[in-house]
Amino acid sequence: MKILIINGPNLNILGKRQPEIYGYQDFNGFLEQLKKRFSHIEIDYYQSNHEGALIDRIQQADGQYEGIVLNAGAYAHTSIAITDAIQAVSCGVVEVHISNIYAREAFRHTSYLAPYCKGVITGFGLMGYQLAIDSFINE
Amino acid sequence: MKILIINGPNLNILGKRQPEIYGYQDFNGFLEQLKKRFSHIEIDYYQSNHEGALIDRIQQADGQYEGIVLNAGAYAHTSIAITDAIQAVSCGVVEVHISNIYAREAFRHTSYLAPYCKGVITGFGLMGYQLAIDSFINE
Amino acid sequence: MKILIINGPNLNILGKRQPEIYGYQDFNGFLEQLKKRFSHIEIDYYQSNHEGALIDRIQQADGQYEGIVLNAGAYAHTSIAITDAIQAVSCGVVEVHISNIYAREAFRHTSYLAPYCKGVITGFGLMGYQLAIDSFINE
Amino acid sequence: MKILIINGPNLNILGKRQPEIYGYQDFNGFLEQLKKRFSHIEIDYYQSNHEGALIDRIQQADGQYEGIVLNAGAYAHTSIAITDAIQAVSCGVVEVHISNIYAREAFRHTSYLAPYCKGVITGFGLMGYQLAIDSFINE
Amino acid sequence: MKILIINGPNLNILGKRQPEIYGYQDFNGFLEQLKKRFSHIEIDYYQSNHEGALIDRIQQADGQYEGIVLNAGAYAHTSIAITDAIQAVSCGVVEVHISNIYAREAFRHTSYLAPYCKGVITGFGLMGYQLAIDSFINE
Amino acid sequence: MKILIINGPNLNILGKRQPEIYGYQDFNGFLEQLKKRFSHIEIDYYQSNHEGALIDRIQQADGQYEGIVLNAGAYAHTSIAITDAIQAVSCGVVEVHISNIYAREAFRHTSYLAPYCKGVITGFGLMGYQLAIDSFINE
Amino acid sequence: MKILIINGPNLNILGKRQPEIYGYQDFNGFLEQLKKRFSHIEIDYYQSNHEGALIDRIQQADGQYEGIVLNAGAYAHTSIAITDAIQAVSCGVVEVHISNIYAREAFRHTSYLAPYCKGVITGFGLMGYQLAIDSFINE
Amino acid sequence: MKILIINGPNLNILGKRQPEIYGYQDFNGFLEQLKKRFSHIEIDYYQSNHEGALIDRIQQADGQYEGIVLNAGAYAHTSIAITDAIQAVSCGVVEVHISNIYAREAFRHTSYLAPYCKGVITGFGLMGYQLAIDSFINE
Amino acid sequence: MKILIINGPNLNILGKRQPEIYGYQDFNGFLEQLKKRFSHIEIDYYQSNHEGALIDRIQQADGQYEGIVLNAGAYAHTSIAITDAIQAVSCGVVEVHISNIYAREAFRHTSYLAPYCKGVITGFGLMGYQLAIDSFINE
Amino acid sequence: MKILIINGPNLNILGKRQPEIYGYQDFNGFLEQLKKRFSHIEIDYYQSNHEGALIDRIQQADGQYEGIVLNAGAYAHTSIAITDAIQAVSCGVVEVHISNIYAREAFRHTSYLAPYCKGVITGFGLMGYQLAIDSFINE
Amino acid sequence: MKILIINGPNLNILGKRQPEIYGYQDFNGFLEQLKKRFSHIEIDYYQSNHEGALIDRIQQADGQYEGIVLNAGAYAHTSIAITDAIQAVSCGVVEVHISNIYAREAFRHTSYLAPYCKGVITGFGLMGYQLAIDSFINE
Amino acid sequence: MKILIINGPNLNILGKRQPEIYGYQDFNGFLEQLKKRFSHIEIDYYQSNHEGALIDRIQQADGQYEGIVLNAGAYAHTSIAITDAIQAVSCGVVEVHISNIYAREAFRHTSYLAPYCKGVITGFGLMGYQLAIDSFINE
């Protein structure tokens, strides 16, 4: 089983970025833990601050992975183009948000992506990525 | 560790109710599987179609459980009173929805409860309850 | 043929309640007339001010009746949970309102239930129940 | 007793028009059945695709009929001018819609006419006309 | 003179519930003080978390009390059914809110009940109940 | 000087139509008075309940009259097509409403026509037509 | 007959203020013409840029004048307090706007005052004041 | 203890102004009664129709009074500037409305001031001022 | 191949009507050019300012033409009845607008018809009709 | 004559992407056909999933081409930056959409680009590109 | 060069008013510093809590100053009358806000004045006035 | 002191782009002037049409500069991702717009970035950059 984790804008500076909201752990360290926990599956990782690069990567993932764990960050609230990319690929996509977006500004309460995802996991911090991978394994 | 699962309106007829959306499994059967999987923790279960009864149960749970897994069903979209009950208890609450509410009618896209929950898990079918319990165990 | 009439909140005090809007006749007296008129079919009756109790009753009616005549009163405008119950049962539901809800406050102009009912009859006073039963007989 | 049935735009091609929504029966055939059923009363019929012609006919009906059964079709959602005509005549008007307008596009959920009608009957197919006539007889 | 105080959802846990908003005093203790202060009038008390139970109690109060002091809690913002019950009884109803609802979330700024109440008292903590009783005495 | 008065839907039954709003005088009688008062100018009159006929008449008036006094009735609130006709003719148009449309239903508060008219006179009863003619004479 | 003309903010600099919209004539010169034209009636005039001063003057006018011609300028779109003053006085008020407010910014399209005025005259330039006085004379 | 009562626009003509809404008593007479009732505290009074004058007076009251009872009339619905003045002074402000503003036009349902006041008392007629003073005494 | 061109309100005065927006060519002259260009197909033409007449013509066209080129003018923004006629006929309809409706008033930005048309061509002047016919030929 | 075709996000996977909406043909194959059809003009092609790259390309096209055929895909609904690029170049831009965007989700019904384009062609599948090129040739 | 600084409501108590938002410095002290810094130009100052007085002063400034630095305080969000005064004077107006109004309540995010000002400077504390004067000097 | 100026989409073609709005000067020329004026501080410059590249640059600037002057162009109105980047860096950001965005289309009136910036300077042309640098120097 192969899973691709895709992180969107500003998630490359996790740990430094508003840690009271996003926590103090950086993603690479967390990724190591995650790979150890799920040592029986293959986990690839991609991050970009560029909307277009995220679309490129989602398109390329088609047929290569059983599932995509996607934290599109702020693009979840503004990008119909990423939404279209999700609809265009056949592998299931799980949307993850680290913070509880419903407890923040109103413009973070909606996601263009959600209707076309397999499921959405919000507010559990980095543990959300782990739950998302679990959801593919337990399918 | 003690977890309370609370199901709201129309979840007592799961398996019979719009199975193309909610699936064909009834909740009691699933609960048995869930208890087996998490045999090392105590899982209590409560269901009611009554908004007031759900509030009563949430209040009583305060101090009795490490966590509440709450699928308030349609009341998630209309009940400020349940929202207030969640704010009034100290144990964490995880909101679960079986179907992907963002892919359905617009009035199902918002939840009064979500801002006051620890996290939200949407669209994974009955597996969502399992992921919610995992989130308490992995805390 | 068996028909269940369900009345929602404040319809137990019909005749006393704002008679300039709802009329001076109490429902029990009217129910007697109705049963006489439709002596060849079986008419059951249930009233509650409790949203949850209405859901319970709708669920129990599944498979027991050819049709439900439902005046959910004010819950028509606020209850997604009753809407879900209607979608969960296989017998047809006809929505009735005694007063012309479109000639009253804006919050009475919409019904969550209507899209999932067989039909809607509004503004004919108590006669609306009779027309609703006719609609099942003439099907 | 004299009743006037008025049908608005596109109801002249009933039976051919989107039959999955409006049914396969044409209105003239149905009108014959209706006249047989209510042989003791006089039923006149008028149809036009012209908003102005419907207003003309409603005005002329004043004082000539005990009641008007009006299916204004799409004009129900857009015509304040027909609404004014209804307010200008003294005989009661019952609004009928063949399809369940609440289960269709949002722009069909509201009716300018409804607040000024005696009652509204929606979603029962052609049977709605029969129920409307019943409502005048049982007054 | 007989006054009925009705408290809605989550007011049974006053003193424990978000005390930074609702204060540290429990309602029963306060009620004793209130009865002492107004020893010349009869004060009855009812609390429920159930919308339907609140409607039942308001209906039963009709003709039994000079006034109702109603803190419907969160139901003030969502319940048209309680609004209808208020309109159905002849004794005056005064709406009370402990916290200043206008300084909180937007969904707490409106009350379905207010237009049909004699008056509204908001933001004075438990003292609001005392002012409400004064308003009946000074009428 | 030649002036054309155009009346829209339901203004042919003035005097009979909701006289508490529109008054008890019929328009033909008023027109005679008006022609006497303005005996030195030529006044033509047209009325139709048909939106298309009003457009036809406005188009034909181009170049034939110094001014048009237009009471489009309910079409003022719904007709962009009449608005376009006004923009297409070179003679000035004054919009008149008999009743104070701002004191009535919200859907009567706006006029598609007004931005393209020379001026608007509202709420003066039939005197509004006289003031409108005055406005052309005093230009 | 005594008429009071009240002008609101920025109407004291008429002639200098955006003459492409409001014209090149100053109000005092126009007032002289107006008094000559209506030499048989008494016309008083008041202007202020202060909302409160306009309210003071309207209150004082009560019982002193047969009518008030009020151009509240921008306050028409924002002042509920002037609206209340209009409702508090018994003499009729006619609202006048020099420019066609419907052809300008959206925030100029509505008037708090209009529903409580006898009538509204908009877009005729200074002639609007003359038509307003005519409306009182012809009453 | 010193209390300042501030009344906003059109409250100087209480008793004459729409008495079916605001009652037949003038405020000065009522003030005498109020001072007698609360003879042990000092009550000052100020009224103005000018928004700016109300702001001036609120600013001057800072440090001079234990509390301000403020009926800003229509300015409650439109004045952010008065709101800012309330936030700028340290003494508590209680907002009072004589009529039940929630039972009137929609633009009267909101108050800019309310979120920054100690509490709000609405709909009790002149008695509201008495309850407001009570609220300061019982603090 | 037979194509029907239908033009709605105010398109009969093309060339004279706001030529800075709609151009200086009249439609009949253009139609001659168009027929020459497409001499191998049959082109019929109909214009009316009457909404009902347009509906009549669309209905009659069913089965008679391979396609309809429809410029409904202002009715595109207001007519659900024409929308229903389009849905009722089996031949494809292409919506054309001469001007770029998206660069004009907001009320011209939406079309009721568009969702039910084969395609929409906007802003190309009279050339839009030619492109529409091309779209049928190239199908 | 030189024309530049620019395709936005997800149009590089045409033929594979939701073929029930976008068709089964890939764009490169179609482009060959197009170039053959328009062999007398020069057609360049650019595609990117990156909003910024599309802006770069539009800027570079200025002065190099007689026209741009732009299918910005999902960016049409969200990108003011591309809109600004269109306004910044002097060559005409024609907006094309393959699917009928008005028959899909509400967020696809609006285009930031449209008001600044020469015209818009929607819903004709790949043929839309051909019609767009025709529109430049026939200018 | 002559510059007029105009401060609106509640800016007379700067330093005392919500210093966590507006700072601890009073305006007169700051004005002295400012005059020293810009000793080569003449700076006049006016403050009022009265909307009308601000309008009076803006009108009088016409032709007397090269520029106006206007902090209209809360009136920026509510006053169309001040907006009109700005449009009526020929000297440029720069709008200043001390606090970052975009980081506060939603009703502070909009300014009626801004579209008609030369520029807007927001959030720099008292330094904003200095930058505004700089903008006139550097013109 | 080191300042970074970041320009967003279409600002690379300043001088050529809609000069009636943005002026005729190109940014590089202006930058030279700016560096001369502020010769005692270090000014770096970055421009990109790519939202992601702007985010990358803002992240890299963290800890390298005392301040960022950011004209995000059209992305100010649409980019939550840039907003998040601003919140993630510790150096202050000043938002600049060359044109008066409040005098243009409604979609340019709001900025996602503004609430998280130190201040906003709008409408002063290129001078706005100079004022922004001044604001850092004068801090």
Superfamily (CATH H level) name of chain A: Dehydroquinase, class II
Structural class of chain A comes to alpha/beta
From the N-terminal CA to the C-terminal CA of chain A, the straight-line distance is 12 Å
Described by its quaternary structure, the protein is: homododecamer
Number of domains of chain A: 1
CATH class assignment of chain A:
Alpha Beta
Proportion in β-strands of chain A: 15-25%
Global mean pLDDT of chain A: 96
Question: Fraction of residues of chain A in helices?
Answer: 25-40%
DSSP helical segment count of chain A: 6
Summarize the model shown.
Twelve copies of one chain form a homododecamer. The first copy, chain A, has 139 residues and is α/β, with parallel strands linked by helices. In chain A, 36% of the residues lie in helices and 19% in strands.
Topology diagram in text:
Twelve copies of one chain form a homododecamer.
Chain A: E1 2-7, H1 19-22, H2 27-37, E2 42-47, H3 51-61, E3 67-71, H4 75-78, H5 80-88, E4 92-97, E5 119-122, H6 127-137
Parallel strand pairs in A: 1-2, 1-3, 3-4, 4-5
Helix pairs in contact in A: 3-5
